[in-house]
Amino acid sequence: MSKSVLLKSSLAKKYWMAATGLFLCLFLVGHLLGNLQLITHTGESGRRAFNEYAYFMAHNPFIKVMSWMTYISILFHIIDGILLTVENKKARPIGYAHAAGTKSSTWSSRNMALLGSLILVFIVMHGAHFWYKAKVKHDMLLHKVTVQSPNGPAELYVTTAGSYLPVQGVKVKNHTEFFEPSVDIKLGEGYKDLHSVVIAFFSGKETNGVPGNENALFAVIFYVIAMVVLAFHLMHGFASAFQSLGARHPKYTDTIKNVGNGFAILIPLLFAIIPVIIWKLYN
Amino acid sequence: MSILDSKIPAGNISDKWTDYKDHLKLVAPNNRPKIDIIVVGTGLAGASAAASLGEMGYNVKAFCFQDSPRRAHSIAAQGGINAAKNYQNDGDSVYRLFYDTIKGGDYRAREANVHRLAEVSSSIIDQCVAQGVPFAREYGGLLDNRSFGGTQVQRTFYAAGQTGQQLLLGAYSALSRQIGLGRVKMYNRHEMLELVKVDGKARGIIARNLVTGELERHSAHAVVLASGGYGNVYFLSTNAMGSNVTAAWKAHKQGALFANPCYVQIHPTCVPVHGTNQAKLTLMSESLRNSGRIWVPKKKEDAEAIRSGKLKPTELKEEERDYYLERKYPAFGNLVPRDVASRAAKEVCDEGRGIEANDTNEGVYLDFSTEIKNKGKQAAYAAGDHNPSEEKIITLGKKWLEEKYGNLFQMYQKITDENPYETPMKIYPAVHYTMGGVWVDYNLQSSIPGCFVTGEANFSDHGANRLGASALMQGLADGYFVLPYTISNYLADEIRTGKISTESSEFEVAENNVKSQIDKFLSNNGTKSVDYFHKKLGLIMWNKVGMGRNAQGLQEAINEIDQLKKDFYIDVYVPGSNDELNPQLEKALRVADLIDLGQLMAMDALQRKESCGGHFREEYQDAEGETLRDDENFSFVGAWEYKGDDIKQEQLHKEELKYEFIKIAARNYK
Amino acid sequence: MAAKTINITLKIWRQKNCNSKGNMETYTLNDVSTASSFLEMLDQLNEQLINDKKEPVAFDHDCREGICGMCSLYINGRAHGPDNGVTTCQLHMRMFEDGATIYVEPWRSAAFPVVKDLVVDRSAFDRIQQAGGFVSVNTSGRTMDANAIPIPKEDADKAFEAAACIGCGACVATCKNGSAMLFVGAKVSQYALLPQGKVEATQRALNMVRQMDDEGFGNCTNTGACEIECPKGISLDNIARLNREFLKASLVSNK
Fold this sequence. Notes:
The complex is a heterotrimer.
Chain A: H1 2-8, H2 10-35, H3 37-40, H4 43-59, H5 61-90, H6 107-110, H7 112-137, E1 144-149, E2 152-158, E3 164-166, E4 171-173, E5 177-179, E6 186-189, H8 194-203, H9 216-244, H10 253-282
Antiparallel strand pairs in A: 1-2, 2-3, 4-5, 5-6
Helix pairs in contact in A: 1-2, 2-5, 2-9, 2-10, 7-9, 8-9, 9-10
Chain B: H1 13-22, E1 36-40, H2 44-56, E2 59-63, E3 81-82, H3 94-104, H4 111-131, E4 145-146, E5 156-157, H5 163-180, E6 184-187, E7 190-198, E8 201-209, E9 215-219, E10 222-225, H6 246-253, E11 258-259, E12 264-270, E13 293-297, H7 300-307, E14 321-322, H8 324-328, H9 338-353, E15 364-367, H10 369-382, H11 390-416, E16 425-434, E17 437-438, E18 451-453, H12 471-491, H13 505-522, H14 530-544, H15 551-571, H16 583-607, H17 631-634, E19 636-641, E20 651-656
Parallel strand pairs in B: 1-2, 1-10, 2-6, 10-18
Antiparallel strand pairs in B: 3-5, 4-5, 7-8, 8-9, 11-17, 11-19, 12-16, 13-14, 13-15, 15-16, 19-20
Helix pairs in contact in B: 1-4, 2-5, 2-12, 3-4, 4-12, 10-11, 14-15, 14-16, 15-16
Chain C: E1 5-14, E2 23-33, H1 38-51, E3 74-75, E4 78-79, E5 101-105, E6 114-116, E7 119-120, H2 123-132, H3 153-163, H4 170-174, H5 181-192, H6 195-198, H7 201-214, H8 225-229, H9 237-252
Parallel strand pairs in C: 1-5
Antiparallel strand pairs in C: 1-2, 3-4, 3-5, 6-7
Helix pairs in contact in C: 2-7, 3-5, 5-7, 5-9, 7-9
């Protein structure tokens, strides 16, 4: 029964909701730290640093585990959220004629399912914008640089080993691997040029061969709104997760609440300024 | 002895119960499941009895009219529960609790019962703590006590101002456990409307399912009535709206004697009446008298000025105030017993010095300003400030009050819209508890074999006046520690009886009686609501069978109730039908019994030509206006026998009260 | 305080029984004293209805001093009405303006079916209590002395604050999810804080939560509305404690 108690009871659902939610908060921090490189470093070095970071994120075994946990967490958080919402609707089949007062709870606490659904929409869009291109469609350009050689401008791929390979002199296999065109010898591996994709997406300008996004301004606005939604979701979710796990004590509850509010404002805010700054930089 | 055999065992008072218990007959564990017991009411007395009997293995059916057993009105008791633990080392003992209770009851209680009550009082506290009842504690982790009216020791255990709630929820939890285990079957929203006797023994009840209106027959080998008191005969009282006498009255009509109906406790500290639509009075715990000083203006003119709003009570100078309890009873001061405090309040209001701006001007002040200063100073000293400012003293004093009585003060403010930290509380006596009830012997058995009565519903332990914090004690003592023994003694002869059929003619007749009464009400098609009659009854009772009674008024009351009863049956209008939840019908059935009872109360008060405890006959008072008992002629329990629909025909039986172990004396709190 | 009178319009849920459909009915009531309690106002309405030979409104009530927990009523979108820290019976008409329209509805919860008009069936709470809301100690008079185990005052006070729950169901009525966590949390907390209750803590948490789920209450999403609307100010600390107790119980229990 212990297993079923940990899965089926109403409290267990809340534990999972809280645990996955808190894990996703951790994910947000990691994701943000990486993304901030988009605005902390500029120019080629920034591009290089960001793409290196993206490569690291895709290949480090620990990070891989973490990202699988993230996927699972998102899935669990969604399924759990749906189950809870359905049960909660069932618990009050007939509503009140005079709508419930708004004095006794915060708006976000009453609308977590709505906020969560909006965030899900965002996650899908966000995935389609970047993750899908990199991981599924594999149509992302590789990081290459143009140098002035005695023979005129030459295009070179940047490899993960830190060396350069001429674009003309290699064959790309498995999306990112460089091979000697005639012999099956692997010469190195390239970076996906995620940085340029991002810049092109939010600036609307052609970037290193990535065509500019015609609706860049809308994209920026959409992302900012999404972050506002996230902020409201976190505003309740962060502290709520602690409460669900029973972490409450008169001494610390206020701290948890304040940290939660700080987190809910700071993290989405920092996420939101990235597209804004990119757009500003290029327009 | 006539039909009244109190069955008090012989022997020394302190050994009676132990010896008696040791020789009672038992029912073996394997026989108990064959025996059915009905318990009506789930307050302290009922819930504790049902739980204990369930634990023992009997088949218990418990009934309450509320939607849950947890709602019974024991829950509203605020102040505390007495027990002779002597944790405070102030000289308390079983004997002292026994003595205080007898004296508090104005020497009209049965010695043996009261001593037993004092004996088991300690076990009650142990039992409740074991159940997880969160009594107030001191910083050392041990139980805290406070003092209550009529005593000079601190023996009252409490849980803020919600002691009754905590004790009832404790009993309810024990009951819930038995329900969960299937040993008690609970019938919520059921009202007992008839007691069924077979061959002279109580064998069951007719209960109405209040949701469906269905009349149900329930049989048992014994019936326990724990249905509470009858204070609602006054319409306005501190009782719950649903509190009623019906269960007890049905037993009375079936032959159970009704004892001392005129003994009513008027509680001195209630919020005064505000208007004609008022349905209920609210008690302010007696514990407030530990900290508050009761006064009215010395001069009538000042009282008038206060009533008209020209003068604020806080503006009246100290020397213009009459702290009348401190003046008249220096030894006990504001902590005199309830009946004494109530009567004193009536007296000053009758003199025209009442301060409440309502129709009757009835109200006195309960002032906390002295306590605020005292406790504030203490708190400042305790915090190391030996020269505190006036302002600091008052702030600290208010804080102390808030900790001690915060919930009561808040409750008062919600009701009256006045802040008792700033201006004195207005209080006035209100009907609170009824010492009278179904007559029972030492076994808590009524004059109907197999019909046991516990708690406030019986008459046994409080004499003519109940001391504060003793009702909770009695309810739990009866249910946990007395009834389980004595009922087993009775049931030991029932193990061969077998299941009792509900198909017998006795059940048939009983059900038909109930049905015809219900049909009569529903088809009556009068013009006035039940409340109309109930209010009229209440007014008669309050004015003529209230705090001060006299022969003329009582006779008038008897006649007026006669007329009221006639009018009620002719002109009451009960809407709705029987096959649904019908609160008006419930009320009509209850008020019908209250009308009968009211008349009996007036008759009892009329025959008791003396003043004692809560029964104050104006003709019998001493030079100082104190109660004047007549021990020679009235040292008896007056138990009435039902003689048909005309209550005036009821016959009085007397149980002599013998005081072997306490020297009877005039009650003196001076 | 001189009481004045006001005239009000009432919109009240009327429903014949649990099987029939209900609807909101409108009534006007004049000369209501502002010193009256809300229930005294309903008494006045019923008196008027009875005099007009109409069916009076059924509502639950008993002690009328805020402790029995029998009164309910969702008034103008709030459990126990617009005042804080009171039950409906302690709500006074001085909280309402002259000419006000007042909505009066029953508790809405799948676990609290309507019996009639404003009366609901809260026996689900009883069943939760029966599942584990007790200490398994028989009546004996031979338990240890009440002072044998000192209990820190702070724990005793907290246990008392949790035990102050009156079981009215305002938490369920208020919660947008119809969750009973405050009620269950309070009961579990009371016992979890006392040494006498610790013995059965594991079973109690598991059994009471299972029963709560079976009754069809919703899930707690920590909106905190219950704490605000609770007439006895039962704290969310109790829900957190229940969460801890249940987590502990489900991890250690071999059932």
